[in-house]
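Curious: why this fold?
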Amino acid sequence: MQIQMLAPAAVLVLWSLVMLFWMALTRFPAMKKAGSDLANAGPGGRGQDLETVLPGSVNWKAHNYTHLMEQPTIFYPTVVILALAGAGATDVLLAWIYVALRIVHSIWQATVNRLPVRFVIFLISTFVLTVMAVRAVIITLQL
């Protein structure tokens, strides 16, 4: 089960890169349309500087990419801990559920971005991650 435990993490890494490319493919044309591009950017510019320049629907992809760099940083070590400690079928299932929810969250945020639905998806994925973390503690302490 250990190697199967790593597959969801690998998929989430790949999904994060998909979101990075989606962000770039929407941001660069929008920047050009807004009269802003990388060649004219001053020193120390940040993606956040584009918030007032680009339409919200373009920025949503960047917001989601940022989200994928936040909570999943807890998911990755949890997956490794479970894999090393002897993940079971339940652990693998929970990891896949978490990844599926994060992908749904990404698509929702990048396209529709209605907060109530997005928040529910986030809460459910957080609950799944919490269960995984508790299982990691239990398995490593052999409770």
Notes: The chain is about 75% helix and 0% strand. The chain has a mean pLDDT of 91.
